[in-house]
Specification:
- This protein is mainly alpha-helical and about 300 residues long.
- It is about 50% helix and about 5% strand.
- Strands 1-2 form a two-stranded antiparallel ribbon. It has a two-stranded antiparallel ribbon with strand order 3-4.
- Helix 1 packs across helix 5, helix 10 packs parallel to helix 13 and helix 11 packs across helix 12.
- It is elongated.
Length: about 300
């Protein structure tokens, strides 16, 4: 899980302005409720969702026909938003890799062909139709993660506010792989023992299970093997030589590390390229303190 670091409040306000430019008919009381509360619903943050859910259920869940009608209405509203503003919103957020898995690119590149990430509804659109357009409920992600998450409602880390960072890390059995002839690479993802935030730990476990991250990352053993072999092969003298050679080309330390290891290893840039979180964690696990993570 990679946290999406952006000026989210500014983007949210621009998004609200664009939505309010669309005319909406108050055909039914439940539609009127949404239109009258549109500012609150669009700008609501995750810690406000439960209160809004309770209000919606108290007002309308006693009448299933109204709820079904409203769900169809919000489905159409969401489709209209995607057609008119989906590309713009994805471009503004400018998320390069899926925040849920950090395994796939999510570039926004072609408006006509609608090449952009999908939007996952953090609170599912089917169960919470009133949040279908809420800015903080729309997470740009890859198709795989959007599919496997589906209507999953377990408590998860929210990419706009939380990420694994240094408290939940990948690890591999690099010593056994290098020293034992027929040893296979095994990948683990765990929260650090030092982390005392139990709620964070629960969310991390839920994310790992929901998105099948351990199973998916186990498929990247060829990439992991390359990292292990490089780190065991580069002694200090050879590494210093590479730094010196690349420095003559005007490359910064961060750029040199990316050229050596094939990925961004400074944590602030983990979202820039797939598998960068994995790369950072493995290099740190093996103990390459000599490789500065500064950009």
């Amino acid at each position: 899980m990679i946290k999406i670091e952006r000026n989210l409040e500014e983007i949210a306000l621009l998004y609200l302005t664009k939505l309010k430019e669309c005319k909406r008919k108050k055909q039914y009381p439940i539609n009127s409720w949404f239109i009258d509360k549109i500012d609150e619903l669009i700008l609501a943050k995750p810690d406000e969702f439960n209160q809004i859910n309770e209000e919606f259920e108290a007002l309308y869940y006693s009448n299933n026909e109204n709820v079904q009608r409203f769900r169809r209405y919000m489905d159409n509203q969401y489709k209209t938003m995607c057609d008119k503003h989906g590309y713009w919103l994805a471009k503004e957020l400018n998320v390069n890799t899926c925040p849920y898995c950090n395994r796939q690119y999510t570039f926004t590149t072609d408006k006509k062909k609608k090449i952009r990430p999908q939007f996952d509804h953090f609170f599912s659109k089917s169960k919470y139709p009133h949040l279908a357009l809420s800015f903080y409920n729309l997470i740009p992600c890859c198709p795989t993660c959007n599919h496997v998450k589906s209507d999953h409602v377990s408590e998860l880390l929210h990419p706009y506010f939380e990420g694994y960072d240094v408290n939940c890390r990948f690890s591999v059995n690099h010593r056994e792989f290098m020293l034992e002839k027929d040893s296979d690479i095994k990948v683990s993802i765990d929260t650090l023992i030092e982390c005392d935030d139990e709620n964070f730990k629960i969310k991390c476990k839920n994310n790992i299970r929901t998105f099948a991250l351990k199973e998916l990352y186990q498929e990247h053993t060829d990439y992991i093997e390359e990292i292990i072999l490089k780190t065991y092969s580069y002694n200090q003298e050879y590494y210093n030589g590479l730094i010196e050679d690349f420095s003559r080309m005007g490359k910064s330390t961060g750029e040199i590390h990316r050229l050596i290891f094939g990925n961004y290893i400074d944590r602030a840039s983990n979202e820039q390229r797939p598998l960068s979180k994995l790369t950072s964690d493995i290099l740190e696990q093996i103990g390459l303190q000599k490789y500065s993570y500064e950009t």
